[in-house]
Design a protein that fits this description.
The chain is mainly alpha-helical. It is built from 28 helices and eight strands. Strands 1-2 form a two-stranded antiparallel ribbon. It has a two-stranded antiparallel ribbon with strand order 3-4. Strand 6 and strand 7 form a beta hairpin. It is globular, with a radius of gyration of 25 Å. The N and C termini lie far apart (63 Å).
């Protein structure tokens, strides 16, 4: 009976998942975009409602409106929903409408950018102090089949079911619903029939935004209202939406309620069965659901046509050994000369370059989107904390072994990539990141809990190579260690692009079917790419562990993983130079220090990077490095012969990798 009672208590959580899933279905059907920022957008409205009811002030993205007194629930509700409608339309028009027909990576990046921007905006405007919302629906205890539960759970479940029935009718029975579905599948045909696809999409986004905010306010009294509360609920909501194949309202709602009830029962089971993990089982369930849904229904899920295969070009300019040597020499000279703060920023930048280059290999070369690289780095870091202090596991063996553990996990996470790619693979990897964070990073036996895990400093042949020790912090010798590793990784990734394996990777990225026709085993190439990228992420995570000394799981949170993708995309995800540019913008890197020291904008770093990410993905999908390469090519094209010009164009053409792979095969 107690297990059944816990299942009923999960109806409130299930209502959240169900309404989020409905919003995701609406936006995906309308524009082919999975809105990872949906939860953060709702969270902003819920915070507005909480503050408006307690202080009488409506906090806006910029500025605020003082009502003079606390408005009633209905007035506050109406005001917040009006603002939600305006905010949703602005975000759609500025961020999502320009990329509705863009490649999947651009859509994923814009969606992640909106998520990061709104999340950062919530922290800037409302702070990190949790809020509480007074009950809106009746919450007296009621008895259902012998189990007691708050009445508001039943009201929430009933409201969601009514909304689902109405939405299902609108989608399947009305002219607007059928026009929206038709416009999503074939915009040209919709235009010929007199419809305006973008207007239809905007209306769908408006319904999703306002409806989600309304339900978020009603649900707020039943859950903890913190900065990250609603944002990461997007993962179980995606699980529910995938149960409905991103199109079926009844199945998505049923999936949401089943997920919520099952998670609640798992919570009870973990409390009564001592040997089960106390953390992670509940949060890992959506990941399992997503994996099963994508593997079983991967080919049946709706797509958006040929745009699914396009990615920014991967330029292959000539390697200049003298320039590489000069760059390394300049950094080597700068390390002991910089002040402590700037030296630490340079070390962070060099460490981040390894993490960024792991994404260059996996996404830029192989075409596999990953939102879990920092999670893999964290696994390596905490593994190093466990084994690095043992005398029988010295540096660098401990670092390599830790990276190997991350590699094994990375390959396991990449297995779904053998069947899915693009948007669906992004869903898998963000779910994996959440599962790793909850199951591993929040397990105090592995990470040390709130106190963190100490990491023994590296030494080799009696020489101390750690960041601490002596009279300086950070020690220049640690900077030289990071410089050496980062240089080897950067040169190795550049050589990989020019190798036979690199050409096959680009062939798979450009067209799996064409690559397979030329004799390339696409599955093998994907797994090799995931292996290399995961190992590099593990090396980067190990160096971060050495740098921090006392490792905390917050360093490798899901948000940090998303921020990593953001900065790499801004820099240029398809080239080594793009990865190096991206490392400058990593949190704690040189750009962060410059924003704080020169402009006093350190508190707005995440918001600035997120806005830059969205703007970059919309206006310049190739990133900084790709833009510079094209400008350089444009300037020199007039002075080259036709053969030389064609040869250089081949380095950035999407078709060149296929031809090169076929030739190699």
């Amino acid at each position: 009976m107690e297990l059944f009672s816990f299942g009923l208590l999960g109806l409130g959580t299930g209502a959240i998942y169900a309404i989020f899933a409905l919003g995701l279905i609406l936006t995906y059907r309308a524009s082919g975009i999975i809105n990872f920022g949906y939860g953060a957008m709702i969270l902003f409205g819920v915070y507005q409602f909480a503050d408006l009811r307690t202080t009488g002030v409506l906090v806006l993205p910029i500025g605020s409106i003082d009502f003079g007194s606390r408005p009633s629930v209905l007035v506050a509700f109406a005001v917040v929903l009006l603002h939600s409608a305006l905010l949703t339309l602005v975000i759609y028009a500025l961020c999502f409408r320009p990329v509705h027909a863009a490649p999947p990576l651009a859509r994923v990046v814009v969606s992640v950018g909106v998520m990061l921007a709104v999340q950062a905006l919530v922290l800037v405007r409302f702070g990190s102090v949790p809020r509480s919302v007074a009950p809106i629906l009746p919450n007296d205890a009621v008895t259902v089949l012998g189990a007691k539960m708050p009445a508001d759970r039943l009201y929430l479940a009933g409201i969601v079911i009514v909304l689902a029935v109405i939405l299902g009718f609108v989608i399947s029975r009305t002219r607007f619903g059928m026009a929206s579905r038709g416009a999503a599948e074939n915009e040209k045909a919709a235009v010929l029939l007199g419809y305006r696809p973008q207007r239809l999409a905007a209306i769908n986004w408006l319904i999703a935004g306002v409806g989600g905010t309304a339900m978020g306010i009603l649900i707020a009294p039943t859950t903890s209202l913190e900065a990250g509360t609603y944002t990461m609920l997007i993962v179980p909501a995606l699980g529910a939406a995938l149960i409905g194949r991103l199109s079926s309202v009844p199945w998505a709602v049923a999936g949401g309620f089943i997920l919520g009830a099952t998670q609640s029962m798992l919570l009870y089971i973990t409390q009564t069965v001592p040997w089960l993990p106390q953390n992670g089982l509940k949060q890992g369930l959506p990941f399992l659901v997503i994996i099963i849904a994508l593997i079983v229904m991967g080919n049946k899920l709706p797509g958006r046509g040929a745009a699914e295969e396009k990615l920014p070009p991967a330029p292959a300019g000539p390697m200049r050994p003298w320039l590489i040597a000069v760059g390394i020499a300049v950094l080597a000279v700068a390390i002991p000369l910089l002040s402590s703060q700037w030296r630490l920023g340079l070390i962070t930048t060099m460490t981040a370059s390894i993490l960024c280059l792991s994404l260059v290999v996996l996404t830029g070369y192989v075409g596999q989107i990953s939102l879990a690289q920092m999670s893999l780095a964290g696994v390596a870091g905490f593994t190093l904390a466990k084994i690095g202090g043992n005398s029988w596991m010295p540096f660098p063996v401990a670092m390599i072994l830790s990276a190997g553990v991350a590699t094994i996990l990375g390959v396991i996470v990449s297995i779904p990539a053998l069947r899915v790619r693009g948007l669906h693979l992004a869903v898998v990897t963000i779910a994996a990141a959440v599962a790793i964070e909850e199951l591993i990073f929040k397990n105090p036996k592995f990470t040390g809990g709130l106190t963190g895990s100490p990491v023994a400093q590296p030494s080799l042949f009696g020489i101390e190579l750690g960041i601490r020790g002596g009279g300086e912090f950070p020690q220049p010798v640690f900077g030289y260690l990071v410089l050496a590793v980062a240089s080897v990784v950067a040169i190795g990734v550049a050589l990989l692009r020019r190798s036979s394996l690199g050409r096959q990777m680009l062939a798979v990225r450009s067209s799996e079917r064409a690559a397979a026709a030329s004799g390339i085993d696409a599955a093998r190439i994907k797994l090799i790419g995931a292996t290399i990228a995961s190992f590099l992420a593990g090396i980067g995570g190990s160096l971060m562990a050495y740098q921090q000394g006392q490792l905390s799981f917050e360093t490798f949170s899901v948000m940090t993983s998303l921020l990593l993708v953001a900065v790499v995309y801004i820099g240029g995800i398809s080239s080594v130079s793009g990865g190096l540019v991206a490392a400058l913008m990593f949190s704690g890197g040189l750009v962060s220090i410059a924003l704080d020291e020169w402009l006093g904008l350190g508190d707005y770093e995440s918001l600035i990077l997120a806005i830059a990410l969205v703007a970059g993905a919309v206006m310049n999908p190739e990133g900084v490095a790709g833009m510079v390469h094209r400008l350089k090519l444009h300037r020199t094209s007039g002075t080259k012969t036709g053969a030389e010009h064609d040869s250089e164009l081949e380095g950035i053409s999407d078709q060149a990798p296929v031809l090169a792979g076929m030739k190699e095969a």
